[in-house]
Write a structure and sequence with these properties.
The complex is a heterodimer. By secondary structure, chain A is α/β, with parallel strands linked by helices. Chain A has 19 helices and 12 strands. The termini of chain A are far apart. By secondary structure, chain B is mainly alpha-helical. The two termini of chain B are 39 Å apart. The chains are: A alpha/beta, B mainly alpha.
């Protein structure tokens, strides 16, 4: 009567025994004589970074005979959740990609889990390849605050927020690429008059707050950004820049540039709605670039910098960091050096990424050229203003909820500014304690 | 009378069909999107029917994460946990339910506490312990941890089942000169096999679906389980919708297969009483 169950139990016991035997066999793989560089990153194999880095691994193995690279692809969540524990153990990788910022690389550097690479940076000249606003996220002081102090990571790529536009819809409605905020507003007015909602916005996630930040940045300068992001100055959420950001955003909702229902739209749906041609404009980061390039089939598209701004949300990409427990630090430095070479940087640029040290002449794809030229302009203005959710832990959710209130019209722009000021000021007061 | 009941029957049937469709709907959406190419997904949206069968997403995902290895890991871990946890639960419950050791109520309360503790609270202690004994990043660590966690529940449940075990049968066995060990294996186990089988299936499926502790403890890709491998696709800002669906499909198939194999055991175990 119970034979099915009994047979299953027997099968499971067999699996158990086989498993135990397999477990005892999985000791270490350091018996082969040659060295192994264990490397983790979390970029998809078809992304610009994935493509460039697999090339870098080949290059590394070719220039380091006898060394094997053991690459493991990880999920972003997994590294976010487990990095402090993994890096504190003997099973730490030799080199890994890690999220830049105070709450991530900054925190680990403060805990002594990351290698200070300042000497190598100077010796190998990486500091000369990276512009000042890219260096910001690579250096952390003893409080774990970015912007100064020792080098704990090296970025290979950059990212910035820009405007993606549907050329076909622009042509159909006779709209030209705007170069000032007024022209931008006029362009959106034209679309609204024709019954088209101009902006694809995801209010449930990061996109909406980045639009507000872009608007604030149109009245801001480097000192304002540094005060906000690195706590070296007074931050007033009712100053001209923040007020302009919040009131203009609310105004755009009122005029119909931003749809009322976008408070419930996530970033993924925003992207797919633009890719399927439903909206003429999407404001988002260069991380969308590869996907838009691969998936837009039915129309011509292009990108431009946020009109009229010298600064834009953006920063270096994620960093290569070397755990303090890495057993092959020299090999890890060599690997970083290869990723900074022109060959790999150009590959990154030609695959739709934003390289930090490429040779502009070697970028052959015209759209990638446009992207990289835009970045060069921005970087030349010292215009990377980082992201609005960076300065305080949990600030992302504060901003999402604040901007959603602006979209839904449930709070005035002054109330929203008060709401987002409070957690920021509370956190800024505790820095360095 | 009979004619009157007909429409009511159809209404119930209709309600059941609607309910079944609602239950199936998410699976159907996952299956559809798993079979779409990324550009098809982008242009037609998630709810459209697939234009053709696109298996590349599934194949790419399988190769990208070395899915065969993950399946093996999941089977080894869940299988070991299921067998070990049932065994340990049985021993515990035999002592508590039939042996009636002193203070058994408090022992049970303790087990219940262990079972209700959130895993997040256990992570750091377990991390330091496993690092101390050199088991961090091994499948053995996860097997031990989940054996203990599942045993806590198993002991609680089995103890209450065994405490209502008919004393006459035990008495008769003892009169025939059976030792405690023989009573357990010749009398108690055969009679409570349905309950044990249900526990085995539950432990297997619960362990299979665990995400958080395996995520923390199995850091090498070679050791990871299926749910952890699915997490690889969740990028920082972007997700690959079609491949996520492909992976979800691959992830639920083993659980469904397992359920289909054991569903008779499950229903029987629930309906059969302790005495028979």
């Amino acid at each position: 009567m119970f034979t099915a169950g009994r047979r299953a139990a027997a099968a499971l016991s067999a699996a158990l025994i086989a498993g135990t035997m397999a477990l005892t066999g999985c000791g270490g793989d350091d018996s082969s004589g040659g060295k192994t560089l264990t490397l983790w990153h979390y970029e998809g194999p078809d992304s610009a970074m994935g493509v460039a880095w697999s090339e870098a691994i080949k290059e590394f193995e070719a220039t380091h005979p006898g060394v094997k690279v053991k690459f493991e692809e990880k999920g972003f969540e997994q590294i976010q959740k487990t990095a402090p524990m993994v890096l504190n153990s003997r099973d730490a990788p030799d080199i890994l990609e890690y999220n830049k910022g105070n709450a991530t690389t900054g925190l680990l550097s403060k805990q002594g889990l990351l290698t200070d690479m300042s000497d190598e940076v100077a010796k190998r000249g990486w500091d000369k390849m990276l512009s000042p606003s890219l260096q910001t996220t690579a250096r952390y002081d003893q409080r774990g605050v970015m912007g100064s102090g020792n080098w704990y990571g090296i970025p290979n790529y950059a990212e910035f927020v820009m405007v993606y536009y549907n050329k076909d819809l622009f042509a159909k409605h006779g709209v030209k690429v705007p170069t000032t905020l007024d022209e931008f507003t006029a362009a959106m007015e034209t679309f609204v008059k024709a019954g088209v909602t101009p902006l694809a916005v995801g209010g449930k996630e990061y996109p909406a707050q980045q639009i507000l930040y872009q608007l604030a940045l149109s009245k801001a300068d480097r000192g304002w950004v540094n005060a906000f992001q690195m706590y070296d100055g007074k931050v007033d959420f009712h100053d001209e820049a923040w007020t302009h950001g919040a009131t203009t955003f609310a105004d755009w909702v009122k005029r119909g540039y931003i749809a009322k229902n976008s408070a419930g739209i996530d970033a993924e749906s925003m992207g797919t709605s633009f890719i399927s041609g439903k909206f003429p404009i999407m404001v988002s980061g260069s991380w969308w670039y590869g996907r838009v390039a691969a998936e837009v089939k039915n129309f011509e598209w292009g990108t431009f910098l946020w009109p009229g701004n010298t600064m834009s949300a953006g920063s270096s990409g994620n960093l290569w960091v070397i755990p303090e427990n890495s057993e092959n630090k020299d090999l890890a430095y060599d690997f970083i050096d290869i990723t900074m070479q022109k060959k790999i940087q150009n590959k990154l640029g030609n695959s739709g990424g934003v390289p930090v040290a490429a040779d502009p002449a070697a970028i052959t794809d015209p759209k990638s050229k446009e992207l990289i030229e835009n970045f060069t302009t921005l970087s030349g203005n010292d215009g990377l203003a980082f992201y609005p959710d960076w300065p305080a832990p949990g600030y992302y959710d504060v901003l999402v909820s604040g901007v959603q209130k602006l979209i839904n019209g449930t709070a005035s722009s002054d109330q929203v500014l008060d709401e987002i000021a409070k957690p920021y000021q509370e956190h800024a007061g505790t820095i360095g304690e | 009378m009979a004619r009157r009941r007909e429409p009511a029957k159809y209404l119930v049937l209709l309600a059941l069909v609607v309910l079944a469709l609602m239950m199936l709907f998410p699976f159907v959406v996952v299956a559809f999107n798993a079979l779409k190419s990324p550009s098809e997904y982008a242009s037609n949206g998630p709810l459209a029917l697939p234009e053709g069968v696109y298996l590349q997403g599934i194949i790419d995902f399988w190769n990208r994460v070395d899915f065969g290895q993950k399946l093996l890991n999941s089977i080894v871990i869940s299988g070991s946990v299921a067998v070990l946890a049932v065994l340990v639960s049985l021993f515990n419950a035999y002592a508590l339910g039939i042996g009636r050791v002193r203070g058994r109520l408090w022992v049970l309360v303790l087990f219940l506490l262990a079972f209700t503790l959130p895993q997040e609270a256990l992570v750091y202690p377990l991390y330091y312990l496993s690092k101390q004994v050199g088991l961090y990043d091994t499948r053995l660590a996860v097997i031990i941890i989940f054996t203990v966690i599942q045993t806590a529940f198993g002991t609680y449940l089995l103890s209450s089942v065994l405490s209502s075990f008919p004393p006459e049968i035990l008495e008769a066995a003892r009169m025939d000169g059976a030792s405690r060990w023989q009573v357990l294996w010749r009398v108690v186990v055969p009679l409570s096999r349905p309950t044990l089988a249900v526990l085995l299936v539950f432990f297997f499926i619960w362990t299979w679906n665990e995400f958080f502790l395996p995520l923390v403890f199995l850091i090498s890709n070679d050791n990871q389980t299926v749910p952890v491998a699915l997490g690889v696709l969740q990028g920082q800002r972007l997700m690959d919708a079609t491949m996520s669906n492909a992976s979800a499909l691959l992830g639920i198939i083993p659980a469904i297969v397992f359920f289909l194999i054991f569903q008779r055991t499950l229903t029987r175990g629930i309906t059969v009483g302790a005495t028979k």
